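Recap slide: Ribose-phosphate pyrophosphokinase, sequence and predicted structure.
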Amino acid sequence: MKAPIKIFAGSNSEHLAAKIAEAAGLSVGESSIIRFSDGEFETAYEETVRGAHVFIVQSTYPPTDNLMELLLMIDAAKRASAYKVCAVIPYFGFARQDRKDRPRVAIGAKLVANLLMAAGVDRVMTMDLHADQIQGFFDVPVDHLYGSSVLLPYVEELKLNDLVVASPDMGGSKRAHAYAKYLHADMAICHKRREKANVVGEMTAIGEVDGKNVVIVDDMIDTAGTITKAADMLKEKGAKSVRAIASHAVLSGPAYERIENSSLEEVIFTNSIPLREESDKIKSLSIAEIFAKTILNVYNCESISSNFIL
């Protein structure tokens, strides 16, 4: 007899998990979390998971508590005799710490991978990792999905003439090139000099943007310092319009205020992270169907490559 499939939600991704379950023709399983006054918490399943193929949906932003909650849910499922446990992490926290970029620092992404495997995870499903090589940090299968599956169709529907796809920095040029190739558009690169973490110094553009409709592509937007500075600079260089698309709406600190006061016409995200505020400039596209289809493909031992655009 085939193992039953069950989807559960971490407290940070309940809304997304409900949409994923609905798209998969399932319902979200019953779980609970008890919080103690000292900050400790305990997770529990309120229904049997014995022999089940369990998928736990939890974006780890903010990373620490939500990561710990995910680890406890994985451990609880394994101890309750689940057949397989898959961590569905639309936004993978600590992904920016993928290497030692200076002496005496941790490789946080590798540590998180070790923690997930120590908890007993059998598979990881995520989207638009900050660095692709993080997949190699795991000794279990990693399904790496892409927000382009919903972001690219949105850009196509805008039917923008004289389209230019821009990268906000040199590191994102590969992603921007893939988008530009798919959209048959020209490409530009914003070259920045970062003074320190989350602080951008000087910035200039490489490529022709005068009279063009520019779409800046990134994997995440955190404080929005880079993206808004790039948008203002591109407008100064004659861009007709500037938009931004990114998979993950981290949007910490002054991000919302910066976006509101910038030259950006709109910023489009996926709903991998729930938005904290509403804004006329910010739009969220659902990735529920992509994850639902991939979950069913994995459960039925089918290929997931048909879910990718790029």
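Residues 5-145 form a domain with the Rossmann fold fold (CATH 3.40.50.2020).
The longest helix spans residues 63-79.
(End of recap.)
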